[in-house]
Amino acid sequence: MPPPRPRRSTASNAPIRERSTSSSSLFDAPLKPKASAQPKPNPKAKVQAKSPAKTKANGTEKKVSVKPKTVLADDAKAGDDDPDAGDAEPPKKKARTAKGKVWPPPEIAPERHPPRNGYPIFESPSTTAAPNGGLPPSTTEKRPMLLGAHTSIAGGPAGALLRAGKAGANGLAMFTKSQRKWASNPYEPEAVERFRDLMKPKEEGGLGYPPESILVHGSYLINLGNPDQEKWNTSYECFKDDIYRCHQLGIKLYNWHPGSTVGACTKEESFASIAKAINKVHKEVPEVVTVIENMANAGSNIVGTAFSELASIIALVENKDRVRVCLDTCHLFASGYDLRTEESYADTMKKFDEEVGNGYLGGMHLNDSKADLAGNKDLHENIGLGKIGLTGFRCIMRDPLMAGIPLVLETPAPEKALETGDFAIWMREIKLLYEIQGIDDEEWKTRKDEIEERWRKERDSINPPKEKGLPAKGKAAPKGKKKSKKDDSEEEDD
């Protein structure tokens, strides 16, 4: 969020970045009622005295003690309000409706969606730069930039589209399954049908989220750069399953973290392992485009922190029509690519075009950074409130290169924001980004500080910064407070 950090898998040794938001299923199982105190005996209640019952066992008689029953106890089980009415017929129990069966869930139903943001549409300046690698548009209509957030698939994948609609977004990211497990149950046909129906244009009864507006995020467990063959095979099967689910749903863009050498091989060997997986999955699953994400922690075992490393992987891919890159702004900044001013932003994007090529740009993750430039720390911050600042994100929103590709927020939000349907932080950030997109250069010079101050107050009212000394989101809980298996099963994405 994009969202608690999954536990590191020993099977993959995969690098896991810190995520700042959390979510779990909207459809938690109904809570069991708390056990009530034992009722006081009623002197009027009839008590059935103990009477030994005789049974025969091996030809001998054996006495069996039978516990006494009271009318009060029986009535309590039957749900009778009057313990003295022992002869009355117990009322029939009301049928319970299981949670999560109503579709669409009332709290995220289309009638509760606000108007989409980004109107009136910003007129991008003309450019001589090479175009991006966005998918062909599904419509000839001019649209705002495809700005959105990472949304939860709790209750089924179609829920992610409904949540994006509730946030007023024009694009989104999502998982296709739990990112905490290697394997998940296959989709029910009904779940696939619901998703495909909601992707349709509004005039056809859908929400209007076509394939080019959706960027799936892969499992954090995957590490295709690990030279251990057994672990590589496990990662590949998870990778392939993610991509097959995209194909089932009609999604075309699948983004994932390339992996790590885990200190067991060279970077060049990891490039080859990653490209091997891409080439293999392209042959086994049709259509879906594999989108490699740039990473933070430059100089470590993690692969993809520099543009040159992304280019090295792409060079080994056979079908280059089905490979793209997703640039994460926090990861860029952490790795030493400056975005803070118009000049530094232009220089960074020029380097990308020279080393990788604009034609391979397939999406962006929009996150400010709590860490300094080249700090090698993946610490997400809300837009404009970190070390990158609002000007860097205004440059992105006004860059014609960013039109037609998913621009996804993965910024911090309150605990369980997605579970409770609290989209306030992302709704505000989406509006903010479209707002600063439309401000001209002269006005920006005078209004920048005022807008940043206003936004910081809004953010602090929604999600106050945590006090020092408290565990940060995604960090381990204090000793003695273990997470239950139920928590794991419910928190299907972050």
UniProtKB/TrEMBL annotation:
Start and end residues of each stretch annotated as Disordered: 1-142, 453-494
GO cellular component: mitochondrion; nucleus
Coiled-coil regions listed: none
Basic and acidic residues composition-biased segments: 453-470
Record domain Xylose isomerase-like TIM barrel: where: 164-419
GO annotation (BP), single: base-excision repair
Cofactor: Zn(2+)
SUPFAM superfamilies noted in UniProt: Xylose isomerase-like
Molecular function in Gene Ontology: DNA binding; DNA-(apurinic or apyrimidinic site) endonuclease activity; phosphoric diester hydrolase activity; zinc ion binding
Keywords: DNA damage, DNA repair, Endonuclease, Hydrolase, Metal-binding, Nuclease, Zinc
Protein's UniProt keywords contain Hydrolase: yes
InterPro entries for this protein: AP_endonuc_2, AP_endonuc_F2_Zn_BS, Xyl_isomerase-like_sf, Xyl_isomerase-like_TIM-brl
Highest taxon of the lineage: Eukaryota
NCBIfam families: nfo (TIGR00587)
Membership in a protein family: Belongs to the AP endonuclease 2 family.
Name recorded for this polypeptide: Apurinic-apyrimidinic endonuclease 1
Species annotation: Kwoniella dejecticola CBS 10117
